[in-house]
Design a protein that fits this description.
mainly alpha, elongated, Serine Threonine Protein Phosphatase 5, Tetratricopeptide repeat
Amino acid sequence: MRKSTIAVFLVSLLGLCFSDTLSIAPDSNRAVETVVETVYVRNDTTCAYGKDEIIAFADHLFGLGEYDRASIEYLRYSFIYSDNPCVDAVLFKAGLCKEHAGDYRAARKIYSTLLSVPDERANSFAGYRIPLTYLLENKPDSALSAIVPTVQTQGAIQYLKGWIYLHQKRYSDALSLFENISDNAESSDVAGSIDYLLHRSRQGEKLSRRSPFLAGLLSSVVPGLGRAYCGRWDDGLFSFIIVGSTGSLSYAEWNNDKEFASVMAVISAFFYLGNIYGSAKGAEVYNIEKDKIFWKTTWKEVPHPPTMLYSDFKCEKTE
């Protein structure tokens, strides 16, 4: 009896140990995550894989849209092989990665390093992309101030400046600039875009607008009319009903229940003033939305957006 009890105890203990072992065993059907550490090396140390492999891997990541990871590989190459004649082109690609990733400040930081290198092509490419990043960041004023025209980039810079004018809603200035570019034989590579931009600049000058003053004035005469003027017919009808109903109740009950009538009068006055202010702001919102749609449509439909220019900096040097 005692032996059987001991045997049962040992079997139970063995089962517990076996179950614990199973519980900590990895599931063969589940993916195993592997942590890969980043190894930093000195620039005089031979890398575990060569410069061709680094560039090939970076280009592969760039093609996949993994711009942050690709930029690390390009920067790794420029650090390890800083004396390589193609390092300027690789640095430019790193800046382009940051630009595509939306990190415009980091892109400008990389591009700025190329402004002081001996290679004039690198200077030209960086000099064009820096103001472009400000435009992509919706900072047209900063883009204009960052422009440094050179002989090599004169045509492209003028093209970019026209786009900045469009973003600033300076349609007349944009039209004048694009007309000057269209007469320049050097701009033949974007001739189709120039014709389209001339057409869009003329459309921009005639873009539908709403006057905030007129919208507020109309709503002061007839509540909701200013909102209808801005295309917000539902809001206009709502304002008309609310102001009209509360005002009518106040008038109708003034002799019977002045307290109730006073409350209705205050509510009516509040909605009446809010209706005037809202109409004026609605006109401003209407104009902003029109400009946004105009800008997005122009950027989407143009054959050559400004991001296409000075975007392919290839190394032309032999190692």
